[in-house]
TrEMBL record:
Organism from which the protein derives: Brevibacterium pityocampae
Source organism phylogeny: Bacteria, Bacillati, Actinomycetota, Actinomycetes, Micrococcales
Protein name: LCP family protein
Keywords recorded for this protein, A-Z: Membrane, Transmembrane, Transmembrane helix
InterPro entries from the UniProt entry: LytR/CpsA/Psr_CW_biosynth, LytR_CpsA_psr
Similarity-based family: Belongs to the LytR/CpsA/Psr (LCP) family.
Basic and acidic residues bias (residue ranges): 1-15
Disordered: annotated span: 1-35
Length: 356
């Protein structure tokens, strides 16, 4: 059987940097990066904080202070390019974004040269009956306002966080109400706070000096970081990484909502203390907002949290030689209808796993 990575499209799409990406010296960039930290970023962790807050009880004020003092915050102008959209009966959509830098001096409003390698949208329905998290592959080909068609992860480098937010909003056909950016290393800290996390892997592979078996793996923080970062190990690259990240989040949430965690205020405070410094959120995601939402989600359990992926049509090649993932337009219309009508849970329940 031919290794799919031997084909040029797979090789360019999953194992090289994006051709034609704006360089760090691109004209119009407001501020050069002072250093390259080498830190990678993963998204999806906001839901972990929401669920952790469920067990706060009398410790709520203390935990809120831990969260507020630990997180970094961006203004609505930096996150949305203007006023933050208000929710109006269609549920809440939170953009969970990964970027290749989270330095304190990053100007997210004009983050030219930075890329959002991992993208998810968390949907919380109006009736708060569950949570749905959709992964959007970074190489999916979309329209980016003012720049024509490009890979969706280029929006951050073209126009900063506001353009990334509006591009994802256009993609799902619904408003983005909040934004959270999370550093990969926060997942190592989170896992170590929990002690360990059980993760189901679809296949065996090696990454970062660690070996993972098909089936159940018990991970410490360092192993978790290697697990969620791995991409070049797989035939369909970023799609498998998305599935691994979803598997990891599922394992973490299972541990977070366990009786041992929720009944231990000291453990919860340690989780929030260790994890919040790796979060950058919009000004609307204060501890008060999260605490209120967490209370509304108090009856949500593991089976009420669903993961799915944006619909993929196949591989394509742009006129300038970039390999990309095309969109299944018919399925995308169903996704947009689900977001518009607050029926994402129904769509997620029947959505097929995306493979190439």
């Amino acid at each position: 059987m031919t290794d799919p990575r031997s084909t040029s499209d797979f090789d360019r799409l999953f194992y090289e940097d994006d051709p034609g990406a704006p360089s760090e010296s691109a004209p119009g960039r407001r501020r050069p990066r002072k250093k390259k930290t080498g830190r990678r970023v993963l998204v999806g962790a906001l839901i972990l904080v929401l669920l952790a807050v469920l067990g706060l009880g009398a410790y709520g004020f203390y935990i809120a202070n831990l969260y507020d003092s630990g997180k970094q915050e961006v203004t609505d102008e930096e996150a949305f390019g203007g006023a933050r959209p208000e929710t109006s009966g269609e549920g809440m959509n939170v953009l969970l974004l990964g970027s290749d830098a989270r330095d304190e001096d990053v100007d997210y409003e004009n983050s030219r040269g930075f890329r959002s390698d991992t993208i998810m949208v968390m949907h919380v329905p109006e009736d708060r009956s569950g949570v749905q998290i959709m992964s959007i592959p970074r190489d999916i080909w979309v329209d980016i306002e003012g720049h024509g068609q490009a890979k969706i992860n280029a929006a951050m480098s073209f126009g900063g966080l506001p353009l990334a937010t509006s591009t994802v909003s256009d993609f799902i056909g619904a408003p983005i109400h909040h934004v959270a950016i999370i550093d990969f290393e926060g997942f190592q800290a989170l896992t170590d706070s929990l002690g360990e996390v059980e993760v189901e892997s679809e296949q065996s592979f090696e990454s970062g000096g660690h070996s993972f078996q098909e089936g159940t793996n018990t991970l410490d923080g360092e192993q978790a970081l290697a697990f969620v970062r791995a991409r070049k190990n797989f035939g369909d690259g970023d799609l498998q990484r998305n599935r691994n990240q979803q598997a990891f989040l599922s394992g973490v949430m299972n541990e977070l909502i366990s009786r041992d965690t929720l009944s231990d205020p000291t453990r919860i405070s340690g989780i929030v203390r260790d994890f919040s410094p790796y979060m950058t959120v919009d000004s609307g995601l204060s501890s008060g907002t999260i605490g209120s939402l967490a209370y509304q989600l108090r009856d949500v359990r593991q089976d009420d949290i669903e993961f799915f992926s944006a619909p993929i049509g196949g591989l394509g090649t742009s006129s300038d030689g970039q390999s990309y993932l095309s969109v299944d337009e018919d399925e995308l219309e169903k996704v947009r209808t689900a977001f518009a009508e607050d029926t994402v849970g129904d769509y997620a329940a029947q959505a097929e796993t995306q493979h190439l």
